[in-house]
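Input structure tokens:
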């Protein structure tokens, strides 16, 4: 009995990197999708990831960087309103309140960089309050 549990745990550990490698391939052009404000294509990507890997946007969000910016920051920088609002709606309040790689939350960064008054910034404030 213990042997099968150990084997199952090892199999899960070994399979995990392959799963994330496949996710990375599926997300390869996500920065272009965000920059082009292509909500329909982003919706397809998100749906495929949810169906294929059972991951939600909040699970993959921290691992994606576009030119050093997170997806929401990148959408703000590129005035990709439809995509930015879509991403915010797909994430939990908790995930939206987490500090990003630079130690700032999305809200703190948006306020410091003049994006909090945009539609994306307003959606962010509505979602987290």
């Amino acid at each position: 009995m213990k042997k099968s549990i150990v084997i199952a745990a090892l199999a899960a550990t070994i399979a995990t990197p392959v799963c994330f490698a496949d996710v990375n391939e599926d997300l390869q052009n996500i920065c272009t999708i965000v920059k082009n404000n292509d909500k329909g294509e982003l919706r397809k990507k998100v749906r495929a990831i949810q169906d294929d890997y059972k991951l939600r946007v909040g699970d993959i969000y921290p691992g994606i960087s576009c030119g050093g910016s997170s997806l929401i920051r990148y959408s703000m920088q590129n005035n990709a309103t439809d995509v930015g609002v879509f991403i915010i709606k797909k994430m939990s309040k908790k995930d939206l309140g987490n500090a990003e790689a630079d130690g700032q939350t999305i809200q703190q960064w948006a306020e410091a960089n003049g994006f909090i008054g945009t539609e994306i910034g307003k959606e962010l404030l509505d979602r987290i309050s």
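The mean pLDDT is 86. The radius of gyration is 17 Å.
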